[in-house]
Design goal:
This protein is mostly helical. Helix content is 72%, strand content 0%. Helix 4 runs parallel beside helix 18. The longest helix is centred in the first third of the chain and has 30 residues. The termini are far apart. The N terminus is likely disordered.
Length: 387
Amino acid sequence: MSSPDTTLSRPSRTTAAATGFRPDIQALRALAVSLVVLTHVWPTLLSGGFVGVDVFFVISGYLISSRLVREIETTGRIRIAHFYARRVRRLLPAACLVLLCVVVAVRVLAPRESWADNAHQVMASALYAQNWLLGAHPIDVTKVTAVASYWSLSVEEQFYLCWPLLLLLLFKLRAPWARLASVAGLGVVSLLYCVHLTATDPVPAYFITPVRVWEFVLGALIVLAESRLALRTTAANAASLLGFAAILGSAFLFTGRTPFPGSAALVPALGAALVIAAGLRSPRQWHTVLTSSKPVQVLGGISYSLYLWHWPLLMLVPLAMPGSAQTLPVHLGIVAAALLLSYASKRLVEDPLRTWAPLADSPRLTFAAMVVVVAAVCLAAGTLLWS
């Protein structure tokens, strides 16, 4: 870890924040997925861990925008096909692996009357439209499927689909302040719509993409305002402390009765933004010993796979163990199994396919593989409907 730079000058594009690995963001991922898993497995212990999803959205907005802005500033353009191909290789293999496993498990374990709901949601998840499917209908708690958690992945993918094109358009504005104002205006519109819809129609307000755009924009604003956010060490420590406190406070204080996302989502989202902004110059902060530790970093590294695996296990294990699935040992076993599967799928599926030369060198081959894999998942899910 390099020594902290306490100046307020414009951060160099060679900082870890701009070009390299950010241990603090990896730790933020670890915290976000931990909150989600804990609130799903033990909701009486942690009622508001769903805010971990909001943290993920801010992280995604920052990281994707940082990559895209850097490419625009360096080359004057974005290689759109390569960008989308990278997203496909990063997200699709593990997601489709879990979906295929869910189809098999549902067929073996679930009652036949639940097959159709699971099939429809597996197909929607493979096509990254799950959030719109859930947002279109009131949630029936008796019909929650093993892939219901895929809604947030759908939101992210829809954001990824539109954001590079919008950034290219915004960078036609010569003045940096005009770009910043335009992105901020988009975020404000989305936030106002979020608050309005949460009050008037809370089901779609939770799931649909337009009400979540402002969280991604919050991460993007950090990139666009980077030169003004290089904090001195004391200020960075205070910002990250406040940020972590906001995330953890909302996780413990929010409940299922909290109108959400609405204005309440500002608390964890701004908390995540503070932590990210505090680490722009990569200073050693009060949390560095913990957040840079190997267990935290490993957990952050498998956070995507863990998010994918934990919910299907939580939904399907009770079907395999009726009458005993709500005990502490079984819940601990679910968490342990999710961790092991996450680590294995990252090492054996995510990382190898993301960097496999034939795919990495050819966006066209990547997209062809995407069509084949998504079609296979949809066909597998279709067998639940046709049986």
